Amino acid sequence: MGCPPLDGESPLARVVILGAGIAGHTAALHLRRWLPKEHEVVVVSPAANWNWIPSNIWVGVGRMTTKQVLIPLAPIYRRKGITFHQGLATTIRPEGTEADPRPSVELRRTDAGHQDEVVTLTYDYLINATGPKLNFAATPGLGPDGHSWSVCTASHAQEAAHALAEVIAKLKRGERQRLVIGTGHGTCTCEGAAFEYTFNVEQALREAGVRELADLVYLTNEYELGDFGVDGLHFVQRGFTQSSQMWTESLFRERGVQAITQAHVHEVMDGKLRYEQLDGAEHTLEFDFAMLLPPFRGADLTALDRAGNDITSTMFAPSGFLKVDADYTAKPYEQWSADDWPHTYESIAYPNIFAPGIAFAPPHQISRPRTSPNGTVIAPAPPRTGMPSGIMAKTVAETIRDRIAAGRTTRAHGASMATMGAACVASAGSGLRDGSAAAMTMFPVVPDYAKYPTTGRDQKGTSGEIGLAGHWIKFMLHYLFIYKARALPFWFLIPE
Amino acid sequence: MTNNQPVDRSSVDVSTMERIAAAPLATAATLRRRRNLVIQFIRFARINLRMLVVITAKHS
């Protein structure tokens, strides 16, 4: 196995990027900026628009419109000289075929007038930045096609906003309502998004003057509040080392939000859900409105070798995420190491294929995984969205740039989540005078107890505080990142 | 504001609810500080600086 020779075969290189989310779009823009024009950068995305997903929570409460969080990709790529195919990648042939040994990817077009037409693209380098498949099917009844809402896409968030408006109308008529917000499966990630939506809904209810009639329940797979899928945070404040658990619980108390932790949702029914907790006990919870995030899995991609044999399980983990340079040896939590995490995001089978962002298979969770006596896994999956995604994508783009310039054996650049920091701003309400957000930094994202024995993280780089300033930052990031995504002048000066 | 209206406690996580009930509650002064424009403007600058340090200097 391996990639075909680039040198000598063609002086030109084609880099194909699957996906135009934060990772894919970042990689495409940097590569186009760095590579001479004779090399081709191609983006394949099933969606016509780029979505600034962190602001979907504001769409979900009616504070923003979908237009404010979506920008059309085609004009940007036309202006920058990036080839754009609107389509869904279905098959990777990393060794090509018997007839054509060049590696290739097959896609099904999704643009109007060409639906289901199949296109084959050969490549020299492939970036799989397909992000997550929203796996609503993992929980019966979960999602907008079932009995709960979602804010994972702009259109989902818009639907959630309409449903929320109906609930508020009922509250105004004096009808008590229960709103349940959280995770719809024991292995979900992005608990921060559910947290944000909870407190933005709480603010919307207060502003509508109906808060006292609404029961707001946060339902999560986290072992304790403030875990956020990163095993929680510890930071120094006012002379004490505080935990994100205490900090979060304080906010729940202040805003009167109820919480259910350690929960795996088995089924969502009309106005009712059934969940199990880590002690094995099953419960039902009735609701009038539920926004529950789905678990993620990798995009549905099939990999075939040159003879046409299915090698999907060689390239991809059972979760559908691409296996990269991580240590996938199964080991208990106590033996997890920062070194388990990938640095280069190169495929273990084909070094000309990379998977930055959500598309790479993590070696394990970050939070301690737990299982109920019934064998139900209740363990937050590791978040790898947003800023880390952008950094990984830029790192992969640097590797490809150098290899195109100096040859395929050029050393890859590295950016492990165990050596990178992250900033996370979790909105707790919007408004330039009365908004609020929890602004957190952590370094590194993946705790390294060998280097930082006390808390796993550098106390100087790990912090958290709540206030209006956090909202201003989140609001500023909305406009900064949309500016950057539009590739307007000096966009590259804005950090990932 | 605090909404102490209990939901059906048989269907929610009692131990988590008890932890929340025992969590430190921000004082009125803290809540005012969190919205004070002058204080928050200073915090805004500090948090931005801290974020830049974490995501650029540390990473590179």
Compile the SSE list and pairings.
The complex is a heterodimer of chains A (about 500) and B (about 60).
Chain A: E1 14-18, H1 22-34, E2 40-45, E3 49-51, H2 56-59, H3 66-69, E4 70-72, H4 73-80, E5 83-93, E6 104-109, E7 118-122, E8 125-128, E9 133-134, H5 154-172, E10 177-183, H6 191-207, E11 214-219, E12 234-237, E13 240-243, H7 244-255, E14 258-260, E15 263-269, E16 272-277, E17 282-286, E18 289-293, E19 296-297, E20 302-303, H8 312-315, E21 353-354, E22 370-371, E23 377-378, H9 386-406, E24 422-429, E25 436-442, E26 463-467, H10 468-485
Parallel strand pairs in A: 1-2, 1-8, 2-5, 5-20, 8-21, 10-11, 10-18, 11-14
Antiparallel strand pairs in A: 3-4, 5-6, 6-7, 9-19, 12-13, 15-16, 16-17, 22-23, 24-25, 25-26
Helix pairs in contact in A: 1-9
Chain B: H1 14-22, H2 28-33, H3 37-57
Q: So, CATH architecture of the domain at 14-134 and 296-406 in chain A? A: 3-Layer(bba) Sandwich
Extended strand count of chain B? 0
What fraction, in percent, of the residue positions of chain B are helical? 55-70%
At the fourth level of CATH, the homologous superfamily of the domain at 14-134 and 296-406 in chain A is FAD/NAD(P)-binding domain
Largest interface comes to: A-B, 57 and 39 residues
Largest sheet of chain B: none
Distance between the termini of chain B: 43 Å
Alpha-beta classification of chain A = alpha/beta
Provide the β-strand percentage band of chain B: under 5%
Q: Roughly how many Å apart are the termini of chain A? A: 34 Å
Major β-sheet annotation of chain A: 8 strands, mixed
Query: What is CATH's topology name of the domain at 14-134 and 296-406 in chain A?
Result: FAD/NAD(P)-binding domain
**Mean of pLDDT of chain B:** 80
CATH class of the domain at 14-134 and 296-406 in chain A: Alpha Beta
Number of helices of chain A: 10
Tell me, what's the shape of chain A?
globular
Sheet-strand content of chain A, in percent, reads: 15-25%
Tell me the number of helical segments of chain B per DSSP (H or I, 4 or more residues long): 3
